[in-house]
Amino acid sequence: MSSRFLRACVVMIVLTCTLCLWASPPVRVCADPDNLPFSNRARQGFDNRIAMLVLHTLHRQGEFVWVRSRRGFLREEFNKGLCDLLIGAPVGMRGVTTTDPYYRSTYVFVTPSREHLQIARFDDPQLKGRRIGLQILEEDYAPPSLPLIREGYAAHLVGFDSFGKHAGDIVRAVAGGQIGTAVVWGPIAGFFKKKEQLPLTLTPVSPERDASGVPFAYSIGFAVHHGDLALRDALNRGLKESRSSIRAILGEYGVPLGMKEAR
Fold first, then answer.
1. Same domain (yes/no): 117, 142
2. 58-80 per-position pLDDT tens digit
3. Buried b (16+ CB within 10 A) or exposed e, 164-176
4. How many C-beta atoms lie closer than 10 Å to residue 100's C-beta?
5. Spatial distance between the Cα atoms of 137 and 163, rounded to a whole number of angstroms
6. What pLDDT digit, counting tens, does each position of 87-124 carry?
7. Are residues 194 and 138 part of one domain?
8. Which end of the chain, N or C, is surrounded by fewer C-beta atoms within 10 Å?
9. How many domains does one find in the chain?
10. Rounded to an integer, what distance in angstroms lies between the CA atom of residue 248 and that of residue 253?
11. Is the peptide bond before 125 cis (omega within 30 degrees of 0)?
12. Residue 30 falls inside a structural domain
């Protein structure tokens, strides 16, 4: 049997396998239609781009299913089979199986650059007398509210929407002087600072975990249904192969990466 014939056979096998993969049903990806910098219906979020990048690396097609990931989403939508893949899931999230992380970020203190401050701790005396912005998640303040209330700042807290067209209001309020500082999830603060060229300083919250056990830094990956280990393992391969491109995308959006950044 000639070497030319063997090479032709190998090429045909590879081509057939590739065509089979592309012919597989598309992976349905649950994504928020209005939640930049993470996702929107125009697929402009970094989670949109990373999901499609990884699926393309695996020679799989992706299909976005637009749904708002609010309270009850896992129970009412994801776990009932609305989609196969959830983007932007904290690693170890209950009720699902998660992949390796594609980034790790942290809450940050946001201060005006003109003040040359680097507030990193909730017991920093420079917080005294300042109005402090916090994101509202559903009906509650974000996790940084717990140490701030413990330090006696309950009356100084100012709530801001976390989603949609008002997501950037909290960082704009610091830049405009309406509030003295804010504690914001890093990807949101970094995105709007870079996009709107706001004169702000972002300082990661320290330490990454509160004395009560509440974390302020999270490793973020994809989530799949319990038992779908084949998809999880494939996604992990795709994440590994796409590592440098993922890092470049995160950089475009100004995402501050945590100390235990995804490798």
1. yes
2. 999 999 999 887 666 666 677 77
3. eeebbbbbbbbbe
4. 16
5. 9
6. 999 999 998 999 999 999 999 999 999 999 999 999 99
7. yes
8. N
9. 2
10. 9
11. no
12. yes
